[in-house]
Amino acid sequence: MSTTLRRYLPALLCALALLFCIVLTDPRLEAGLNDDWSYIATAQRFAQTGHFVYNGWASPMLGWQVVFGAVFLRLFGFSFTIARVSVLLISMGAAFLMQRIFARCGISPFQATIGTLTFVLSPLFLPLAFSFMTDVPGLFCTLLCVYGCLRCLQSARQQTAMCWIVFAAVSSDIGGTGRQIAWLGVLVMVPCALWLLRPRRRVTLLVGGVVYLSSVAFIVEAVRWFYRHPYSIPDTLFPAPLHVWNITQLTGNLLRLALETAMLLLPLLCVLFLSLRRHVRAAWLIVSVACVVYLAGLYWVRHGMGAQTLDAWLAPWLINIFTERGVLDGTPILGQRPVLLSVGMRLFLSVLTLAGLGALAVCAISRLRQRVAVNASQQSPVPNLAVLLGPFALASLLMLCPRAAFGVLFDRYVLTLLFLAMLALLRFMQELSPQLLRAAVLPVFLVAAFSVAATHDAFAMFRARLQAVQQLRADGVPDRVIDGGFEFNAWTQIQHSGFVSDPHLMPPAQAARVANYYTMPHPCRPLNAFLFPDLVPQYALSFNRNACAGPTNYPPVIYHELLGPHTVPIYVVRVGPVAP
Known about the structure:
single chain; mainly alpha; 19 helices; globular
């Protein structure tokens, strides 16, 4: 085996492992997932006309991702699955790049592979890896920028360094046209790389300065281009004045974000207990505190004191992709999907996360006290990773603060920060003990098995929802009188009118029209019904056969889960105009 192949083989295996797990989930689905119905509709129109046509839902400008997906739609014909295959290739590229970045940061190939698999086979990344959402493509472009900056700093020749810094900037420029957070790469990370280069390569600094200014001009023009399109949604950092309660919400959401990140790192954090063999007191203290918290939580739930407050602080702490009811559960139908993680399991997962953080703190304090010199072979070949990635991490966190203060913080927003936290944790654990991560193989495998099973169940649920709709279609029932769930309703609306009626729509102003029937939420109205003024539901899908106006003559559609209940029915129930 050649040296080059040996170097890149672990990264290739990470990409293939992701592909293998996606195949196991059986992700066939000809319907929308989360928000990707909007992005797929734009890709479909681009494949047909060569123009960007928005539909009132996409706040990211989509850019290169739409062009990339449209190529597949032109070659193979329109299909939701074909559009998602294009993102699957990007997801595999992200897995490949991540392993190579970890390795170039001085982490051993084995540990870099374990860290990458922990990330890409998590219950957060795996469901997103086969959707047309912009989160994974945005992460991919950020990884390209990181890789370009690392190669620039490690290049011995000035010409090579210049090429890599241009590559990093251009990848960020293009990546930001799909998801704007990727522009932080060229705005923050590239200047940090140029700062680290300042004593060595003045010509590279000059080239980098020109590239930076060109990138800023490109970003300004791209934003202006986006806002000129009808049915685009302008995104502002501060949608309203800041009040005291916003500060409270910001603090709580950032704390939940930190806990969510730690939970996703659990396969690595849990093995830190093995390094506490010389710190028996600390280990027992961590376990004791965990047990006290666990028992106290069970007491509060049992006696109904603060149960709602406690539920908000149980793992998983953020919403949208990974919840207590499984994955891809952010857009429910009527009724309640069966619970996957019981309150007891969520308490246990919460305590385990806190215990992992405690073990990390004890190991870090012990490491500082020992002041053990790190061997040269364990040091990163990059002059200063903190200078290169620290400001970028801070900027990424600051970009989330307005949303955390004024709205809902979704778990998929954690991806970039999770990658940076993974890198820091891998570096620390390698310095602590090069052999420590060998014990993480089993936890990573167990989490991957859970992620595959949960994603399989989610796709089975969405296929069952579509099958229930097909029963109504077979009897000639038009789509606009069916509440088939958020994704189905949104697709029906844009097929009927070309847009969803978001109040923040850019002109034409007549697009934002809301019927009185949809102004107030109601348990028998569609989720976010104000977006779909052309829908007048008479039938709805439900997990409860007696919901709203009661059952119909249509038989329930049964789907099978690997986790939770083995069989779950989805019913067609009657609904009608609900009085305000």
